[in-house]
């Protein structure tokens, strides 16, 4: 049994008491984690200055590296990505301020258009639970009036970050579409501010169980994700049927392929399962941008003979939500196989 004397913001142990009092489930999770081999890895590192090069061969080589990493890893890192490190540093500073508020205020203030989320309401056991909190904000909502006036600068910085990450994500998606013979500018035309998201994440220290998920294993339900993380570490991804830990790189952003791109590419690009492990002593911060199409967009396939049934992004989201509600887990793409 976990001691409820441990205090934390948010109050995970109080609110999810039945999960943390089930010692058998906790021990089972610990045993499962100990059996998994976790090696540390360096993700493929790609210098995006090649995309802006006047040398055609250099640009082609950069595009090929992006496509290869998306097929072999589903994850890669980018340098010279065009987003100011000073801007990202300012975002981290403002992000820390908002998460340092008392829990009661985060829940009641409706900050950033009531986008605050914490824990996992659907969880019935510890292996379905995420020890984290977040603001998950549609781009269209960032600029709307904030009821907490002292965080106006946060909103301003978020707008700048969202614009920069949107440009980068569209560039990368265009490269990946072009690699498969599809016009890149047409590929992202259905992605808009109402369905693309910026997510501010905080993973509080979890002193009682280093085996607890900061974010449970999952794939992303988008075209692609851009991640800016701090240097604490904790991100792990599935590679060759085993978990590998990603070494933080202070100069790089992480990019990963989502379910929609895997379906559209007919499994050429891979949406890879990943997770975040909680840290016993240190809190972890990250910022994620999710490139998503409009809800009525049909995903389709770049190949005539598709592995997947035709579906819209809205249908995919509803199926994911229903599966999580019924089973506590996302099923994802396998629901739409022919």
UniProtKB/TrEMBL annotation:
Catalyzed reactions: gibberellin A1 + 2-oxoglutarate + O2 = gibberellin A8 + succinate + CO2
Keywords tagged on the record: Dioxygenase, Iron, Metal-binding, Oxidoreductase
Annotated InterPro entries: DIOX_N (IPR026992), IPNS-like_FE2OG_OXY (IPR044861), IPNS-like_sf (IPR027443), Iron_ascorbate_oxido_reductase (IPR050231), Oxoglu/Fe-dep_dioxygenase_dom (IPR005123)
Sample GO molecular function, one term: gibberellin 2-beta-dioxygenase activity
Cofactor: L-ascorbate
Keyword Kinase among record annotations: no
Domain Fe2OG dioxygenase stretches: 192-293
Gene3D superfamilies: B-lactam Antibiotic, Isopenicillin N Synthase, Chain
GO process annotations (BP): gibberellin metabolic process
Protein name as it appears in the record: gibberellin 2beta-dioxygenase
């Amino acid at each position: 049994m976990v001691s409820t004397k441990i205090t934390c913001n948010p109050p995970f142990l109080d609110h999810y008491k039945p999960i943390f009092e089930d010692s058998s489930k906790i021990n089972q999770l610990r045993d499962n984690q100990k059996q998994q081999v976790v090696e540390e890895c360096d993700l493929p590192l790609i210098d995006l200055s090649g995309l802006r090069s006047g040398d055609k061969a250099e640009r082609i080589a950069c595009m090929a590296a992006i496509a290869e990493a998306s097929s072999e890893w589903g994850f890669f890192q980018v340098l010279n990505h065009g987003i100011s490190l000073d801007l990202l540093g300012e975002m981290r500073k403002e992000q820390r301020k908002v998460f340092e508020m008392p829990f009661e205020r985060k829940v009641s203030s409706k900050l950033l258009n009531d986008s605050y989320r914490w824990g996992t309401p659907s969880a019935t056991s510890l292996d379905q639970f995420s020890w984290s909190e977040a603001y998950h904000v549609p781009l269209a909502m960032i600029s709307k009036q904030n009821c907490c006036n002292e965080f106006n600068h946060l909103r301003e910085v978020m707008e700048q970050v969202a614009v920069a990450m949107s440009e980068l994500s569209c560039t990368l998606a265009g490269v990946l579409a072009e690699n498969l013979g599809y016009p890149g500018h047409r590929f992202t035309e259905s992605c808009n501010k109402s369905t693309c998201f910026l997510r501010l994440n905080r993973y509080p220290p979890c002193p009682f169980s280093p085996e607890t998920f900061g974010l449970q294993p999952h794939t992303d339900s988008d075209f692609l994700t851009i991640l800016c993380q701090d240097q604490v570490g904790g991100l792990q991804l599935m590679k060759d049927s085993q978990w590998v830990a990603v070494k933080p790189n202070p100069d790089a952003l992480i990019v990963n392929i989502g379910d929609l791109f895997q379906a559209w590419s007919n499994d050429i690009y891979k949406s890879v399962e990943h997770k975040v492990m909680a840290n016993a002593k240190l809190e972890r911060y990250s910022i994620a941008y999710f490139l998503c199409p409009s809800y009525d967009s049909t995903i389709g396939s770049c190949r005539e003979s598709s592995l997947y049934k035709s579906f819209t992004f809205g249908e995919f989201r509803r199926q994911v939500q229903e599966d999580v509600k019924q089973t506590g887990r996302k099923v994802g793409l396998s629901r739409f196989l022919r």
